[in-house]
Design goal:
Layout (H helix, E strand, L loop, with lengths): L1 H38 L3 H27 L7 H21 L3 H21 L1
Amino acid sequence: MATQVTANARRSTSFLQIAIILQTLTIFLQAVSAGLLLTSSYGETLHSVGARVMYGASMLYVLAAVLAWKPGGGSPRPVWHASGFLVLASVQVALGIAHIPSVHLPLGVLMFGLSVLALARR
């Protein structure tokens, strides 16, 4: 029984790491597409699609954090981090839709830094 719990905890942790990696990668790709937004005609489409993918990756991070916490009885701290990140992603999307780059861009940099930090902590 203990072996199965350990294996499930390892799988949950791996899923959590994959979710954080995916989130970090999508945020980085958003920075790239923001550059393309300024220099090409298809940049706006890429950035818009990327925003949806990044938001989905943030939701996946919350799901992975809950799955890592609940079955194994670990710390709920990753759930709080992932939920906070989803709030930041929501604000980021709203700022992008409202075309407020003076806050949207620095928040994107902050989100990337926080995501890299979460990845380094895993």
